[in-house]
Design a protein that fits this description.
alpha/beta, three-stranded antiparallel beta sheet, globular, 11% strand, seven-stranded parallel beta sheet, Rossmann fold, 553 residues, 4 domains
């Protein structure tokens, strides 16, 4: 057999390891308790759930940065920051840019992971700053980007460095990130940056320079030159930001609260930005719910007051999140954003993924003799060739589900590349199209897809006990995903079946037992039927409808 990733094993192995760990970490001498504990751990819904399969088809594309520059929507210098500027934006990115830049709206961007949410606020933000022209020489915060944790702040810093280092103007847009990791004086900040850059891949540092600059930089000079280049666009220390606040300030809500309390930051940064502040961006907006959301909302009101924003509509606000439900809750999302920011929001912008037909074209027709039942059967027993095998070695396994003429056509288009061959052989297969269209809607439970009549085109057989026999269908789906993730038109493109498998676990709160050994739910290990049962039913938390429980762990 081959070493392709097996989706079934990818689910079952972590689950088995997790259960084995808990049984080891919480040893029980009583055999009946051990037996009952193991049963609880193995039941779905207690500490784990069946996995979800999510499709990651590309989003609908639209115009490029160049196009928006030519239309007069964006500043001409934007084409030098976003490289290549001819790359097409996603449809939702263009919609977000136009909403903020042209219509001056406050928006919520609610698109999935990997959908380019960052560009939805970076692009209008940088456009706004570039349009200030000579006024950029006036120190003061124009934009606050708020993140819930430092890890996200660090990722954003890397992205901004790369973009802003491409500036060709004398007066440059500058940013600073202000967290507990930010050093007070420049000397220590430089040393901290040197340590950070030393851990980088050299290729990552080279992205800060133009191709012409790279040619003149020796390998041993790379870190020093990167520090010098970064210093032109990033204020590294707190003292630098006190002296001249950056155009873009990045922080988290904990540090923002400290900054609003301390006189130094209040005076040197916020009061100095009274006449310059223009935009507030909050990433991962879904994390600010409940009491935490109320506290951060009041924090934002204090911040707005500190920079002289006392009326609605004076600033632009953008919230982003990948976890805000679907379009049916947009009214609630807009209401939440309005209350959270204390501003009026206009719309929720969501991404639209390509369906199978839009991305792959029309499906081909399978021979009438090839039934849906046979496809399931063939896929469940198919043996995939070893990795690196020739195209000819794939003909026999695929010939049972793909028409011969389609295989020959795919071979002629593949340039001896197995990934291209699989792409051209399968991109028109009706089963592939049905799976993509199912996953385009929303993440689905693995078992639901396995038993989907829409996917297979038939009802799965029923066992004697009345349950669905999905054994073959589950293996067939696993094999289909293995083949579909190998198929690519080009090395840098998404595979034919870009998917994510979500494994769901939660921590153990404790182990509790009813103190009545005659309880109807008491566990009995059949191997130790002669041993006395001393406890009743077991629970993994104490919130159960019993009068008296004892905590075992």
């Amino acid at each position: 057999m081959t070493k392709y990733l097996d989706p079934i094993a990818a689910v079952e192995q972590p689950r088995a390891d997790f259960i084995r760990y808990l049984l080891t970490a919480y040893p029980l001498r009583d055999p009946h308790l051990r037996y009952g504990f193991k049963q609880l751990l193995e039941q779905p819904g207690n500490l784990w759930q069946h996995p979800y399969l999510e499709g990651s088809q590309p989003y609908k594309s639209s115009l490029s940065i160049n196009d928006l520059v030519e239309q007069g929507v964006l500043h001409p210098d934007m084409a030098t920051l976003f490289i290549p500027s001819s790359r097409r934006l996603y449809e939702h990115q263009e919609k977000a840019i136009r909403a903020v830049v042209e219509q001056q709206q406050n928006i919520v961007v609610a698109t999935g992971t990997g959908s380019g949410k960052t560009e939805c606020f970076l692009t209008p933000m940088l456009d706004m700053l570039l349009k200030e022209g000579d006024n950029l020489s006036i120190a003061g915060v124009r934009v606050l980007i708020l993140y819930p944790m430092n890890a996200l702040v660090n990722d954003q810093v890397k992205r901004l460095r790369q973009l802003l280092c491409r500036q060709k103007t004398t007066t440059k847009i500058k940013f600073g990130f202000y967290t507990s990791r930010t050093e007070k004086d420049r000397g220590k900040a430089i040393e901290s940056l040197r340590e950070e850059f030393a851990a980088y891949d050299p290729e990552e540092l080279r992205q800060l320079f133009t191709s012409a600059e790279i040619k003149s930089i020796k390998d041993e000079e790379l870190i020093d030159k990167a520090i010098e280049k970064t210093s032109q666009v990033q204020l590294l220390s707190r003292e630098e930001m006190w002296e001249a606040p950056p155009h873009i300030l990045i922080t988290n809500y904990s540090m923002l609260e400290h900054m609003l309390i301390r006189p130094k930051e209040r005076e040197k940064i916020f009061e100095a930005s009274v006449n310059t502040f223009k935009m507030l961006v909050v990433d991962e907006a879904h994390t600010y719910d409940g009491a935490k959301g109320s506290e951060v909302s009041m924090l934002l009101e204090r911040f707005k007051a500190s920079v002289g924003v006392e009326q609605k509509g004076k600033i632009r606000c953008i919230a982003t999140s990948a976890s805000l439900g679907d379009a049916s809750v947009d009214d609630k999302v807009i209401a939440f954003a309005g209350e959270f920011f204390g501003e009026t929001f206009s719309q929720v912008i969501r991404g639209q993924r390509l369906n199978a037909k839009d991305r792959l074209g029309k499906p081909y027709t399978l021979p009438a003799a090839l039934t849906n039942e046979e496809i399931i059967q063939y896929l469940s027993i198919i043996e995939l060739p070893q990795q690196g095998s020739s195209i000819s070695s794939w003909f026999d396994p695929l010939s049972a589900i793909v028409p011969e003429q389609q295989l020959k056509l795919a071979e002629s288009q593949a340039d001896s590349d197995i990934h291209k061959f699989l792409w051209f052989a399968l991109k028109g297969h009706p089963l592939i199209h049905r799976l993509i269209n199912i996953l385009c809607r929303e993440p689905k439970p693995w078992k639901e897809i396995v038993r989907s009549t829409e996917l297979w085109g038939v009802n799965l057989p029923i066992k004697l006990d009345g349950s669905v026999d999905d054994t073959d269908a589950e293996v067939a789906l696993a094999h289909l995903l293995q083949i579909g993730t190998l198929a690519r038109a080009n090395p840098d493109d998404l595979p034919l079946l870009p998917v994510r498998l979500h494994l769901l676990f939660r921590s153990l709160e404790g182990l509790y037992a009813c103190i009545n050994p005659k309880c109807s739910g008491a566990a009995h290990d059949p191997i130790y039927s002669d041993r006395e049962v001393r406890y009743g039913q077991l629970y993994l938390n104490e919130k159960k409808p019993v009068n008296a429980v004892v905590r075992l762990y």
